[in-house]
Amino acid sequence: MPIVGWVIIGIVVFLLLFFALTYNSLIRMRNQMRNAWAQIDVQLKRRHDLIPNLVETVKGYAAHERETLESVTNARNMALGAIGKGVGAQSKAEAGLGGALSRLLAVVENYPDLKANQNFLALQEELTSTENKISFSRQFYNDAVLHCNNTIQMFPSNIVAKLAGFKAGEFFEVEAPAEREAPQVSFS
Fold first, then answer.
1. Under a CB-based contact definition with an 8 Å cutoff, are residues 185 and 102 in contact?
2. What pLDDT, in 10s, does the model give residues 89-112?
3. Residue 26 to residue 169: CA distance in whole angstroms
4. Are 33 and 169 in contact (CB under 8 A)?
5. Could you tell me which of 54, 88, 87, 79 has the C-alpha nearest to residue 69?
6. Cα 129 to the chain's mean position, in Å?
7. Listed range (29-33, 67-71, 109-113) with the worst mean pLDDT
8. If we measure between CA atoms, which residue out of 135, 107, 132, 133 comes closest to residue 120?
9. What is the largest CA-CA distance in the chain?
10. Highest mean pLDDT range out of 64-68, 109-113, 147-151?
11. Pick the CATH number of 3-180 from 1.20.1440.20, 3.65.10.10, 3.30.2350.20, 3.90.1640.10
């Protein structure tokens, strides 16, 4: 076989190998991104499960704060309803729930007996821990999206991504400027 034939075979083998390795890398990144989103879902489920107990504990002490308690319950229901409707919809619903929770915790300030209640303190600690885990999970998800999007959009892997139908991932973002501010809650 002439040298030109070997060169052509070498180029074809190289291109096939490049395509296969890049495709597998894209699959790995997409799966990491999906796993990261699943981890957010796990923590959000935990948060959603804690909220009814927190509301019931506060209800016993702050019966006349019905509007605040109902807004937390409604925000939780909206967040549950946004599951599976995409990152943007779920992000918006969860931000609304976070705002309702911070208003509820601000109401607690008016009830010294409630702040000392062991059930409330345990629930508050669980909720704080869950919020931290949600924050870390969102960061991990956004890092996975960034890595995947960079690979999908950068040359030469963008050629393989386009041929294989890979789409850029959606970041978990806070949309309203007020949601970017940390709620000020003090239990002293």
1. yes
2. 888 888 888 888 888 888 877 777
3. 12
4. yes
5. 54
6. 15
7. 109-113
8. 107
9. 91
10. 147-151
11. 1.20.1440.20
Q: What would the two tokens of residue 29 be?
A: 């990144």
Q: Residues with Cβ < 8 Å from 100, sequence gap 6 or more?
A: 68, 71, 72, 74, 75, 76
How large is the average pLDDT for residues 130-150?
Answer: 92
Q: DSSP assignment, residue 76?
A: H
- Quote the radius of gyration of the chain (alpha carbons, Å): 24
Q: What is the DSSP letter of 165?
A: T
Give the residue extent of every domain in the chain.
3-180
Q: Which two tokens stand for residue 24?
A: 């597998």
The structure's pTM equals 0.70
Evaluated on CA atoms 11, 15, 16, 17, the torsion sign reads: positive
CB atoms within 10 A of CB 87: 18
**Residue 68: per-residue pLDDT:** 82
**Residues 146, 151, 152: CA angle, nearest 5 degrees:** 95
Q: Are 47 and 83 in contact (CB under 8 A)?
A: no
Q: What is the DSSP letter of 179?
A: G
- Nearest-5° angle of CA 145, CA 26, CA 7? 145
Tell me how many degrees the CA angle 133-176-81 measures, rounded to the nearest 5: 60
